[in-house]
Each structure stands twice: as C-alpha cells, then as structure tokens.
Write a structure and sequence with these properties.
504 residues; alpha/beta; Rossmann fold; Dihydrodipicolinate Reductase, domain 2; nine-stranded mixed beta sheet; six-stranded parallel beta sheet; 17 strands; globular; disordered N terminus; binds 6-O-phosphono-beta-D-glucopyranose
C-alpha cells in the first residue's frame, strides 16, 4: 500500500515521529473555513515532518456536491495558501492521493453509510482495521447530530482499533447547554474517546507555562499569595470580526475567548504540580483551580466604535457587515477574579480580551510584591519597580523577567531592565501550529491538552452569571472604545490599589 513519505527534518525540534497506529481522519465540515485555514495545512505539515502515522487516510465530509478530485484540488490550494512552510510537491501529491470526499448533509443517514463503505475499503486495502478519528469542525448544532448518527450506524466503535471524536468549540453557549451536549455525547461515546479542543492548549508557549513552572525549582517557592501581588492575563487582537458576524454576534468576547482559552491559561498558571503528566492527573489539578473560582462581580464589557486601525479608518462594530445596528454584543471583556484556595487567596487575577485593540498580544503577566524596605536614597529609588514575570504566548514568544539594576555611574540609581528568553533565538526552529500538535495527540489518544467534561462545566459555571447580569442590563450600560485603541477607560475601574493595566 502506498504511504505518505516520511521526511524527518533534524532542524525541527518538536514533532518527532511517534509510532501511531494506522489512522483514518474524517473531517466533518471539510470545506469549511477551519479545515481550509488550519486543519488541512496542519495535516500537510505533519506529513512533511514524517510525524503522521505511517499509514494515513483522510476523508472530508461536507455539503458541497463535488467529486473526490475537486476536493483534492481545493485541499491543495488551501495547503499552498495557508501552510507555514512552502509545500513540497512530492509530499503533497502523496498525501492528497490518500484523500477522499463524501458529500451530504450531516443528518442524512446515507452519508454515514457511504462513510462506512469508504472506511472499510481503506481497512480492506491495508488488511488491518485503522483507528478512526472523527473531527467535528461544523456549526455546533451538528455536534450532537453527528455523534448520534455515528452511534446509530455503529461507527462509534471499531473492532481491533480505536475510535476518537474531536469536538470543536463552542461547547455549548451556557452551562445547561454544555451539560446537555455532554450528556448526548457521552450517551454514545466513552469520555476517553472524546477530545474537546481548545487550540490555545496546543500552542508551544502555553505548554511552556508547565515547563517553566514545573521544570525549574526557583519559581515554586514564590508561586503563591506571599510573593505574588497580582496576575494579568491579556488576549488582545488587532483585527475586527472579519466575515464572522453570524457567529460572533451571538457569541461575544466573553464566550469566544474568556470562557475557554483564557480560563485555560489561568488553570495552567494556578494549578498544583500534578503527580504525573498523564491526561487525568493534569486535568484533575486544572479542574480544582476552576472549582475554586467564584463567578466574578467585577466585570467590564464594551464594544468598539469606529477608529483608526491597520492605517485606515475602520467601522464601528455595529456597522460591520452582518451585525445588527443595535447589537448589544460585547467585543471587549475584562474581569477581576480570585482563586479561593490556600495558594492564591487574596491575589487579584485580571483577565481582558478584545477585538480591534491596538495590537495582537497574548500574555500572562505575574507581578510580584514590592520589596519590604528600600535602603537606597530617595532619589535612587525612583526606578525600583516590583518584578514582573511575563509569559508571552504571542507574538515574541518567550518569557521576560523585569529586574531592578544599577545604572552605571557613581550614584546608586536603579532602573528596571529585562532578562529575556525568546523562542525565536533559543531554538532555531519554527514552532508547530497548535492544530498540528493537537491533531497528533488526538491520533495518539493523548487527551492531556484537551478539555474534560467537568472542566467545561466548571468554566460555564463561572461565566453563566456574568452573561445573565449583562443580558439584563440596559443598552446604555455598554461602553465603547475606539477601534485601534487600548480598550475602554472603564476597564480601569477593575484595578485595585496600585495595580495597572499593561499597555496593549
Ligand atoms: C478563536 C476565536 O477561538 O481564537 C477567535 O473564535 C479568535 O475569535 C481566535 O480570533 C484567536 O486565536 P489565536 O490563536 O489567533 O490567538
């Protein structure tokens, strides 16, 4: 049987080849935006690095009624356009030769029959049962439909191999919906087969938070309420909502980024050291952090008004195509919360995210308490600032620690300086995309970087009351901020004494 050629590249650090059982990946929503921009290029890059299972097939399922070859051509174009490296024609040809397409609507039984046929053909051709990974990259209303149909058609199990289902976000839009979706999914599948994706967990720099905390002895002693003054997690974006009004206007910043990505960053920052890095040991510790968070009272939401961004005037959110002109949806959200446990009691944690802010930056900044006594002359002390430890997720991936240093000269004067570790210079390789790592993990059956059912439920428990409160507020209560700015002035109201937002 033809296999996708393996091309190990010694310069690439991260994605060495694990022995993975032969796998057929099925992408529901194979003509969708995520498949084109992220999933297909990720599969290509795994093939390029020789990281895919040695025997691998891909089946895309979607509504458009097109033959296999047209889909292959579309996939080729997407990979050429969005891959992080220029595709090698030979690797690409070999990969596309293993791609098939099944057209139809997701509630139509005949597509599952056809899918079953295609899957069997691949198995028979190879003479072994392939593992099956079903990736649900569709509108969320289809998640329970597809899982239900997989069950009805006996595709939820496969003798002699594993069946896994990857579910994209959003996993519900409120807690009761997430619980119901979990119930439906788990009535067909076992939790060990379910991979709820949060792509932030696949980012190298997010995983580095764990390495940073648990592979270095020097941070643990200060990682608590005795030394840490406050924490700030920022996920700012410069872009607007693009063509996603249909989704975004129903979601808003709180659901889109805070409920999932930002709370996940928070759990990694605050969790206790796990006993092992097995999926359940890590997730047991993460869920305890969520469990210790009360739904916050201190919140600010806002929406962007027209302003200068990307060197030109850009429209207000309500003027974006597809957005109702009285939309109450927030494009900015900020909260102050606490993790009420022994380690973190009393440490304010600020979260903020927004579209159309001054720049794209995702970072976690941990500010330590000021030194207890300054022995320097008043004049020399001016530059003494509390140490800040910044984990930059993007851009300029790395970790920075600010320190007070003596300015050269006869006088004892202090100035903050930075000690920096940058991924770009420390490792001479390009980081894999989050989706590469996560697809690989789903194929290997490693759920460490995926969200467990109890985590999702806890995340919604924290967010639901805020949604309820915001939903009952009058429209007049929704502040605005200029597109291209650092966000609404109202965000300052969340800060406790002596704390400051970092500049976006
Ligand atoms: C997605 C959100 O989950 O994350 C988008 O739906 C957002 O609105 C995106 O733009 C941000 O991801 P990244 O990897 O670009 O930070």
């Amino acid at each position: 049987m033809a296999t996708v050629e393996q091309q190990p590249n010694p310069l690439i650090e991260g994605l060495e080849r694990f022995p993975v059982h032969p796998t057929t990946l099925v992408i529901f929503g194979g003509t969708g935006d995520l498949a084109h921009r992220k999933l297909l290029p990720a599969v290509y890059n795994l093939a390029h690095e020789g990281a895919l299972p040695e025997r691998f097939n891909l089946i895309a399922v979607s509504r458009s009624d097109i033959p296999h070859d047209d889909y292959r051509q579309m996939a080729r174009e997407s990979i050429v356009k969005h891959s992080r490296r220029k595709p090698d024609e030979q690797v690409l040809d070999k990969l596309l030769a293993r791609v098939r397409y099944v057209p139809g609507t997701f509630d139509d039984d005949s597509i599952y029959e056809r899918l079953d046929g295609e899957l069997r053909e691949f198995d028979e051709e190879a003479g072994i049962p392939f593992n099956r990974v079903f990736y649900l990259s569709t509108a969320p209303e289809f998640f329970p439909v597809i899982v239900g149909k997989l069950g009805e058609h006996g595709l939820d199990q496969h003798e002699g191999s594993e069946v896994r289902v990857v579910i994209e976000k959003p996993f519900g839009t409120r807690r009761h919906e997430a619980l119901e979706l979990n119930r439906q999914v788990l009535s067909v599948l076992d939790e060990s087969q379910v991979f709820r994706i949060d792509h932030y967990l696949g980012k190298e720099t997010v995983q580095n938070m764990l390495a940073f905390r648990f592979a270095n002895g020097m941070f643990e002693p200060i990682w608590n309420r005795n030394y840490i003054d406050y924490v700030q997690i920022t996920a700012a974006e410069d872009l607007g909502i693009g063509t996603r009004a249909g989704y975004y206007d129903k979601s808003g910043a709180l659901r889109d980024l805070v409920q999932n990505h930002m709370l996940q960053l928070l759990t990694l920052l605050c969790m206790e050291p796990p006993v092992t890095f097995s999926a359940d040991d890590v997730r047991d510790e993460k869920v305890k952090v969520l469990h210790a968070i009360k739904p916050p009272e201190a919140t600010v939401r806002a929406q962007y008004a027209a302003g200068m961004a990307e060197g030109k005037m850009v429209p207000a959110y309500r003027e974006e195509e597809g957005v109702p002109d009285d939309s109450p949806t927030e494009t900015y959200a900020a909260l102050r919360l606490e993790v009420d446990n022994w380690r973190w009691e009393g440490v304010p944690i600020y979260l903020r995210t927004g579209k159309r802010l001054a720049r794209k930056v995702t970072e976690i900044a941990v500010t330590l308490k000021p030194v207890p006594h300054l022995a320097f002359e008043a004049e020399g002390s001016i530059g003494v600032k509390p140490n800040v430890l910044v984990m930059a997720v993007q851009p300029n991936e790395g970790v920075t620690i600010s320190l007070g240093a003596k300015i050269p000269g006869t006088r004892m004067r202090i100035r903050p300086v930075n000690m920096e570790f940058l991924y770009g210079t420390a490792f001479l390789s390009q980081s894999p995309e989050a989706y590469e790592r996560l697809l690989m993990d789903a194929m290997r059956g490693d759920a460490t970087l995926f969200t467990r059912d109890d985590e999702v439920a806890e995340q919604w428990r924290i967010i639901d009351p805020i949604l309820e409160r915001w939903g009952s507020e009058k429209d007049g209560a929704l502040p605005t901020y200029l597109a291209g700015s650092g966000g609404p002035v109202e965000a300052a109201q969340l800060l406790l004494d002596g704390h400051a937002w970092r500049t976006i």
